[in-house]
Amino acid sequence: MKFIHTADLHLDTPFRGLQIENKEILNKIKNSTFNAFKNIVDIAIKQEVDFIIIAGDLYDSDVQSVTAQLFLNDQFLRLKEKNITVYVIFGNHDFSNSQIGNFEFPDNVFIFPAEVKSFYHTAKDGTRVELVGFSYPDRWVNENKVEQYPKPHSDIDYTIGILHGALKTGHDDNYAPFSKDELLEKGYDYWALGHIHERQILNEDPYIVYPGNPQGRSIKEDGSKGFYLVETNNKETEINFLPSDVIEWDKVIIDGRSLVSMSDVQREIDLNLNELSKTVSHFVSVMIKNANNLPLTVVKSIEDDSFAGGIAPKKFEDNYNIVFKVSVQITKSDVFSELDQSFWNRSADKIFSSENLEKEVLPLLKNYRFLQELVRNPEFTSTLQNETFELINERKSENDQL
């Protein structure tokens, strides 16, 4: 048996805020989520899979465009012509109550309702499959739905759980919270997860998998994006990641210790761009570290958005390498040497501790729940602490060079 596991297509992503004037490039970005799914369908047909699982968030918004609905319908019809079935759950972005009045998909597409339900499928090799899942009725699902998933049936060869959700954190668990142990206790053969855009394998026997989204939508979703092709043989499961993206967001880091001029910077950026693959377009954020030998005037010019905008796209066949941001980092040990490092460490640990944030910051945000959630996120507070340190560095560097 062979199937594809994908999730988080996010069709209709608006891609706001991009400073790109070239219409050809801009259209490539705006169509990227559509073309990524078309690539998945192409591979599904070529591989002659039995079915495709889409684990939530087909659309980016609870208001879906006619263009996106027609596109999905066309792709599903392509699959129907090849006798490929599609199993769909809706997630927190495109919850089922937002689907009223939308197009009805062809009869090879099975959409899970708001309550946990099973669909049954007999693969070409005779494998009897049970697929279990549910669609979000509304934007948030706070309850643990895994409890409602049935135990595997004795007359079924292979059981797949489909779930759009996130691991429990203990607070503000709005996305069908679960634990890995709860999934393992069900005794399923494969868990097809969605919601997290970073590719992750939570467990290997059985596989519990986030495929990530098939197309990155910003520099926060950098690296190759795609889906999993899953093959089974007598309960043995093998998974292979295959790329589907048409645009790859990349972070390039340059060691700037030898750079002393704008020409040096341009040369190093060109060398790094030439090392990127040419199978997809790359949208690149460049960080120049250890740039202590660059004059302040050059640093200021580089960090001006017009510098990145002035770097011409490098075209090869139908793809591009485009630099959309360039930033400079001064070495901490050099610039920050006059400050008492140990004092900073002690102060930062106290100021950015969860206890202090809970006491001093959260009461100020009582009317802004989304900001409270952000402040409670350890990754956010760590980033805030680092950026504060960088800001002090920057101010010290400017004063030293005046």
UniProtKB/TrEMBL annotation:
The record's listing under Pfam families reads:
Metallophos
Kindly give the InterPro entries that the UniProt entry links to this protein. Calcineurin-like_PHP, DNA_Repair-Maintenance_Comp, Metallo-depent_PP-like, Mre11_N, Pesterase_YhaO
Q: What is this protein called?
A: Calcineurin-like phosphoesterase domain-containing protein
Under Gene Ontology molecular function, one entry of this record is:
hydrolase activity
Q: Where is the Calcineurin-like phosphoesterase domain?
A: 1-198
Q: Which Gene3D superfamilies match?
A: 3.60.21.10
Task: For this UniProt record, give its keywords in alphabetical order, as a comma-separated list.
Answer: Hydrolase
